[in-house]
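JOB MANIFEST
job_type = single_chain_structure
chain_count = 1
residues = 428
[input]
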Amino acid sequence: MAIASKSVATDNIKAYMQDVGQRARVAARAMARAETAAKDTALAAIAAEMERSQGALLAANKKDLDAGKAAGLDAALLDRLELNATRIQAMAEGLRQIAALVDPVGEITDLKYRPSGIQVGRMRVPLGVIGIIYESRPNVTADAAGLCIKSGNASILRGGSEAIYSNRAIAACIQTGLKQAGLPADAVQVIETTDRAAVGELIILKSCVDVIVPRGGKSLIERISAEATIPVIKHLHGICHVYIDDKADLDKAIKIAFNAKTHRYGVCNAMETLLVAGGVAAKVLPVLGKMYQEKGVELRGCAATQKVLSGVKAATEDDWHTEYLAPILSIRVVENVDQAIEHIARYGSAHTDSIVTEDITRARRFLREVDSSSVMVNASTRFADGFEYGLGAEIGISTDKLHARGPVGLEGLTSVKYVVLGDGHVRK
């Protein structure tokens, strides 16, 4: 079994994690050579097992919900923790969607003849063993496992203690599906112990784990980033901007700025700061201000914003640095695109930023000069998502510059190696 007993896990965390890592390394070699058909069969079997096991999944989830209520978890956390028939069906459908995606493993690109006669190209290969550390949402267990299976990786999943029973139940479905497809059960291992020391061991397990992916709150990601001795795919926070240029189509601008903030509040690609060119502030802010206030969005603005809009709190320096994840928006009136770019460079988090303009030269400047993982023209920041980008499901969003950047889907869970084809060629 890929789920260790709790007694083994809690008696000696270091030895337990070493064992998990070593088994994952062995499984990773088998996954790297697995055929696409076997991986897709596993994903379909896991989805079917989840549907068959709905009763068991709901019963396990009830234990987590009851424990969460007793521990005083707030309504938002309980909502993220809850499984129901609709969410279980969504997990199953998500796995089937991953199965339908093109398998990137083994693809050879850029194959070219060199003057020596050899052919040189690049082949896409799995990363190996991926450790994923996450909180609250048990559906991440299914999503993460599915992406790692399809991309030919082995995974070690460490969910939050508040979802321990749910994660165990989902893991049982995953084990069944892997076995039915003839793939190693150790390809997906869910850490059963709730001891936080397991996380500390996982993120320094350099001999067995190739990359760590933290998914959760800022404090979790900061801890992983500070303590890990293994490469980390991550973003700390999403301070996303929309800049309305003085050459914008104001109807477009209003729709985009409203959607970017109010479509969903608690997501990393929601707009947190609106930048407006001074030349159109008096035209666009009163309309947007009324729309935001009708939605219950608290507005915090610079002095120029306060002159245009009544009832706006003064924005502080901290506001420009804040990812609210709530119905709160900071607004700043800027002179031009230069000042907008300067503001984003100083306060942004390199996640997603958008310009609304009909001036192609300014649009191109914004695309070139804003150093974020997603940069947009005349579109809502809410599109910064793996599904919307055509990647299918995503493991997360990376704001780093090496290996993966932006939404990380199947391709982001692979790397490339050079391949050389010859026919007895020797170097002269």
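[summary]
The chain has a mean pLDDT of 93.
The first helix runs from residue 6 to 11.
exit_status = 0
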